[in-house]
Each structure stands twice: as C-alpha cells, then as structure tokens.
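#struct-pred
JK: can someone run the complex with NAP? inputs below
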Amino acid sequence: MTNLKDKVVVLTGASRGIGAATARSLAEEKPILILCARTKAANEKTLTDVKTIGAESESHGFDVSDPSQVNKFVEDIVQRHGRIDVLINNAGTGKMGSVKDITPREFLNVQKINVMGPYNMIYASLPSMLTNDSGIIINLTSARAFIPDKFYAAYCSSKAALLSMTQCLHFDLKKTNVKIFAFSPGFTDTDMVREIYSNDEFRQAALTDSNGQSPERPAKVISWLAREAPENLRGQHVQIQFNDISLRSGLEN
Ligand SMILES: NC(=O)c1ccc[n+]([C@@H]2O[C@H](COP(=O)([O-])OP(=O)(O)OC[C@H]3O[C@@H](n4cnc5c(N)ncnc54)[C@H](OP(=O)(O)O)[C@@H]3O)[C@@H](O)[C@H]2O)c1
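RT: done, structure tokens with the ligand placed:
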C-alpha cells in the first residue's frame, strides 16, 4: 500500500494517548478513519481534530472485551464500507500491583482487554479480510512482554500473550495477503503512565524517571506500518529503539 487515501482504517483506543496521536497522524493521509473507544463521547476531541485535518471519520463506542459488541461493530463497518483495510488494536489497560494484591477480577479484566480485545477484533474482521485477500493488522504490545518486574504481573503477562498470539497468527496468515504486525511503542507520556507514576511505590520501580516520549513519535511509526506494511516485518516484534525503524519510518533522518 503506497498511501492510505480512502482506505478503511479501524483504530481502537482513539480517544486518548497514543491512539489519539495516531488518529491525527493517519488523518494526514485522508483515509476513512473509524475511531473507537469505550464511548463515542470519549472520541469527540479526536474526531474534531481529524476532521479539521481533512479526513473522513466516524466515531464508535463499545467495549473491545465484549465479543458481541465487537461483532456488531465490525458487521456494521463491513456492511457500510465493504471492507476493513487496516485494523489497529491499540486499546489497552494496566493494573499495577503484586499478584497477591490484585483480585482475580482485576487480573482477568487486564487479560480481557489486552488479549481478548485484539482477539475479538481480529476474529470478527478476519473473514472479510480473507475474502478480499487483503488486510493489515497492527497489535500494540509492549517491551514489557520481555521485561518482567515487580507490580507488573497483570500487564506483562497480557502483552506477552498478545505478542505470542500475533506471531502465531502470522504463520496462519503467511500464504495470504493479510499482514499482521506487533508494535511496541516504547515508554510514552499518556494517562496510562501518569496513573502509574501517581503512586510513589510504582514510580520508584519504573525503568526510568522520565515521563516518556511524546505520543506523536510512536504514532508516526504506526502510520508508517499501516501505510507500508513492510514485508520483512510481518509477524515481527517492531519497536523503535535499538534498530533502524526510526530511520525507515522517517521518524529521524
Ligand atoms: N504509554 C506507554 O508507555 C505504552 C508503552 C507500551 C505499550 N503501550 C500500549 O499502547 C496502547 C495505548 O496506550 P496509551 O498509553 O495511549 O493508553 P491510554 O492513554 O490509557 O488510552 C487507552 C485507550 O484504550 C481505550 N480502552 C481502554 N479499555 C478499553 C475497552 N475495554 N474497550 C475499548 N477501549 C478501551 C481507552 O478508551 P476510553 O477513553 O474510552 O477509556 C483509551 O482510548 C496500549 O495498548 C498500551 O498497553 C503503551
């Protein structure tokens, strides 16, 4: 894909943080941008921003962890737009704390949003992508899939599961033109990080004292992945540090 003009791009977690920045970055290429969050109201600012940039856009509210809500959403999109060209599974959550202090319900909630959320979106979207033999899926995982730490059991385990699911699905899709990528944005200044840092104990356990990069940085790489879908990165864990991705994506010269 050389540009995203008129492509149907579904973006979850579009209301805030990396998702909102990704929406603004994608909007420059004038796709049909489908913004998702838990409520339509949460997307209001992002919707205004992307329309101001000039992209056709619509907003949807549903819970990615609920398969029936996801199925209903995908059916509606495919019926009205005919296809989904790009699916970006960005919505995510965290719950910090030692396993003994996190209730089973809280632990399960992280898995339901971070693992079952992308699974539900992919399960609902794949039939149409396979029928068209075309599609790009980008799952937002985390370097935390590889970096265990105290207080991180719920989040790290969910992102490791999502990464593994992405890499396995890549093999299932290898002979098709549906391409799947796992992307780790790196430490980014968003509500998720601010919430962790609002607790002194969690802040002291963090890898860095910095509040993280601007969401515009990973957003630019996500847009590049969606546009270029580089063949040699299919099924790979793509991250910005320690490689040439920032150069390839145009983030740095
Ligand atoms: N920030 C970082 O340093 C960092 C590092 C590595 C990976 N990541 C990953 O990057 C992604 C975005 O993170 P972020 O920091 O931008 O997060 P954020 O600012 O906390 O935003 C989370 C987004 O996910 C949506 N969301 C949460 N639960 C949902 C649910 N059940 N159904 C539908 N939407 C839901 C939220 O929608 P509402 O507004 O409706 O709540 C919001 O748009 C996440 O997958 C995160 O794990 C972030």
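RT: quick notes.
The pocket of NAP is lined by residues 12-13, 15-19, 37-39, 42, 63-65, 90-93, 113, 140, 142, 184-185, 187-188, 190-193, 212 (CB under 6 Å).
Residues 8 and 32 are 5 Å apart (CA to CA).
JK: thanks, will look after standup
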